[in-house]
Structures are given as structure tokens and as C-alpha cells.
Request: fold
Amino acid sequence: MVETLLHDALGWAVAALLGFLAHRIVCLWQRQKTSDRALVALLRDRLVASYCHYHERKTITPHGLQNMEMLYVEYTALGGNGFVTSLMDKVRGMPVVDT
Reply:
């Protein structure tokens, strides 16, 4: 009898622990998705702002191009869309001027 109660209690404890862990994993996954979306928005904002800056100047510096390329790699890795790709194509076509 005691062994059966102990076995049942252990079973319930394991089930409760697994339920808690599953809930925790789902919460962490949702939080990660939110963080990824926020990061994509920040990268997009920075890339668009940089594009506007260099488009106004009609040239881009080597450092500016390298920086935008690095941001763009991460932006696309996180699932960023094609709007920024079209901006990057325009930036790559700009004259590179070392100032």
C-alpha cells in the first residue's frame, strides 16, 4: 500500500514537473519571438535611416557600406523582408568615397 502511494505520488510529481517545464519552454519561446521581431524592427530602422543619410549625400563611405552590410546580414538572418533588400541594392550602386 505504501509503495503504491509513493509510486503514485512520484508519478504526479513528475507529471507536474513536466507540465511546468513545458509551460516555461513555451513562455521562453514566445519571449524569444518577440525579441526577434523587435530586433528586426530596430535593424530595419537603422538601415533605412542610413540609406536616407547616404542617399542624400549621393555617396557612401567604405565604413558606412561595411556597417550597412553587417546590419543587413543579421536583418535577413532574422527574416527581414525585401524592402530593405531594394535599399541595399541602391546603396551598393552608390559611389564609395573615403572621407
Notes: The longest helix spans residues 2-57. The mean pLDDT is 93. The helical segments are 2-57, 62-77, 82-92. Residues 18 and 24 are 10 Å apart (CA to CA).
